[in-house]
Automatic annotation (TrEMBL):
It comes from Acinetobacter populi. This is Inorganic triphosphatase. Residues 1-202 form the CYTH domain. CDD domains: CYTH-like_Pase_CHAD. GO terms for molecular function: inorganic triphosphate phosphatase activity; metal ion binding. Transmembrane segments: none annotated. It holds the Pfam family CHAD. Residues 218-490 form the CHAD domain. Gene3D superfamilies: CHAD domain, Hypothetical Protein Pfu-838710-001. SMART domains: CHAD, CYTH.
Amino acid sequence: MVEIELKFQLPEKQKKAVERAFKKVKARQIQLHAKYYDTSDRILSQHGVAIRLRLEGENWIQTLKAAGESHLHRIEEEIFLGKCEQPPDLNLDLYQHNRSVQTLLTEILGDQKDQLALQFETIVQRTFHVFELHGSLIEACLDDGEIRSSQTHQKICEVEFELKSGDAGTLIDFSQSWVEQYQLWLDVRSKAERGSLLAAGKTVSPATHAKSFVLDKQLSPEIALQKMVINCLNHLLPNLAAIAGDVAEPEHIHQARVALRRLRSLLKNFGKWSAHVNPEWEVELAALFRQLGTTRDLDVITLEILPRIQQQTDAPVLHIDSETQVVEDSSVVFRQPSTTKLLLKLLEFSYRQPRQSKQKNVSLKHVVSKRLDHLHHQLRHDAKHFADMDAEARHRTRKRVKKLRYIIEFVATIYSPKQVEKYLKYLQKVQNHLGTYNDLVIAAQYFSQQVHQNPEFNFALTWVDVEQKNVLVKVEKNLLKFSQLKGFWE
């Protein structure tokens, strides 16, 4: 079966208020003790699969969970074992009549099925109540407890909302009021993921990258847009969870920025395909993107540009003063109710049942081609005038290149693969050189500020100036080559 639920982290200071809310509706409580199994190299976790034995009150249940279509959905297969005199052992033979589970485990584990061993446990007191809203049944849970490995432990304080029956949109609507009232923030990391990291002595999973997208040209434009947004959210939400949880590495920040750009590109270019798209979403996403900008810029300067300067010149070792690296805590921003509510609105849009289109027989390929043609001609114009542009206009060209590339990645499968590949080859070269140029512009601005405190940054400024001129020649050359290309959609 497919489980539809949303999980949120609950700030400790709000726990008593949530407990009072559950007490008011006479919620029930149950003790949950779960044991999670995996191989020593945690191959199940790497594939987004979890297998556990859980004592729920007096009854044991064996459960397998796997990733679903999105972070709203998870595949769940439960086997009720009932009361047992002794704690049961994990038994994969219980799935012998479930072909889909057998296939999944064989693909992942191969001949390692007998190597599954206990990796960590969770001990939780669950307070729960089923609410009815607009004909839908929603189970709200407060999980208070901890994850335990052989070496350490970690606190659990979460609120979950699971759709027992009804509409996913109602589930999302229901959660909105709790987010506002109790400062909940959306966290797509499961207990299984957190436990696997704890057992491995790690704090965060690797950054999530965008997954390839296959577009069905038979879809209506609105449904196509919904599926594209789901793809973006699958890219964005795990990285935002790492940032909000204050465990993010530079790559999480970079991938969150990429995901936000992809999502904004969709809404800007295809937002008119649905009457349910709110123009304010793009504005709010832009604000989140800017929040991550300073952090990313400093990472590029520290990890990429300064090392190149040290390798290629005799400049003295340059350090960024620790005080200048202090940026506004992005984790706070991504825990704010306004951010969580925006993400929930995007999720709600993704699963909304589309209305009957007023434009009958609208060709998806036709509307996509029309938009690609518009973006292509913008860049052809920029290519002719790039040498005379100021810094702001050049930056706009860079954003247009990125926007076009992201859009192509979403729609590529409805066109000739060879033609798309050729086009992207030239576009990628332009994007790479423009990206390098932009990094150098930002570095020059930063080094100019540092010169007043440390004159040795003049070495860096000189290097950046020379490098900018070299890269600019490459940008102009590749832009002109690109401008001569014929669109693969024509």
